[in-house]
Automatic annotation (TrEMBL), chains A, B:
Protein name per the record: Helix-turn-helix domain-containing protein
Keyword Oxidoreductase in annotation: no
Keyword terms: DNA-binding, Transcription, Transcription regulation
Domain HTH arsR-type: 1-95
Alphabetical list of Pfam families matching this protein: HTH_20
Alphabetical list of SMART domains matching this protein: HTH_ARSR
Domain of life: Bacteria
Entries under InterPro entries matching the protein: ArsR-like_HTH (IPR011991), HTH_ArsR_DNA-bd_dom (IPR001845), Metal_resp_trans_reg (IPR051011), WH-like_DNA-bd_sf (IPR036388), WH_DNA-bd_sf (IPR036390)
DNA sequence: CCGTTGTTTCAATAATCGTTGAAATATGGA
DNA sequence: TCCATATTTCAACGATTATTGAAACAACGG
């Protein structure tokens, strides 16, 4: 993932309601949810929601398809995966998120402590 | 990591110059870099940089210490690690970033109070 | 002390953001 | 066809953002 795309994706997730939307989409899996269902679940106005959907879609974090009268939004896991990859690679030491090693890119296992 | 902190951290990283700053700090390891060195490396005005440092510090992504006339900034890997953990846990399927298991019954759709 | 260097503070500015209400569009059913 | 439902578009609005220039503050050397 390019830096530009990472910034866009980070910005898309860096907002309360939008992060809620995305988390809900993730929990709903590939089938997704109708805009209305999301509006109800998160108690957001439909036009506000459209605004946030657009941001998520532009960031490649969501897809949309029509089904009858409803628009069904779903998470794009691939992009999220790339983002986590970018962060791990560029914003952590490299392997997990340890301080950058002085020299050796040792191929060690590093379990993340929750 | 709490959702609120995650949003703050995401917002801190969701900006071109700031992401550059943080990446540079990560590459510099725990020793950090002086504000001036960062300003030179990224060609940013010192006051602009102070603004971005503040954001990173508020998000827990950077620390600062004085050394003589210089302020030395360093990445806080622990926070970054927590953020990646939050994303993996909440915005991915759970383990990596695979689709979540589906089949959650839809929520009822009811609004319009009398 | 004074001047220099390194950084921050402050006020101002244009640009972008998140939300709202009203109106428009699209689909399906009677 | 007309109507109801589901969602989007549009024009506003106040709030926040990133950047700038000028001034202030802090630490050191002479």
């Amino acid at each position: 993932m390019e830096k530009t795309d990472a910034v866009t994706a980070l910005a898309a997730l860096a907002q309360d309601n939008r992060l809620d939307v995305f988390r809900l989409l993730v929990r709903s899996g590939p089938e997704g949810l109708t805009a209305g269902a999301i509006a109800d679940a998160l108690d957001l106005a439909p036009n506000t929601l459209t605004f946030h959907f657009d941001r998520l879609r532009m960031a490649g974090l969501a897809t949309v398809r029509r089904e009858g009268r409803s628009m069904i939004y779903a998470a794009r896991f691939e992009t999220m995966n790339s983002l986590v990859g970018f962060l791990t690679e560029n914003c952590c030491g490299g392997v997990s998120c340890a301080p950058a090693s002085s020299s050796k890119p040792a191929r060690k296992r590093n379990k993340a402590p929750a």
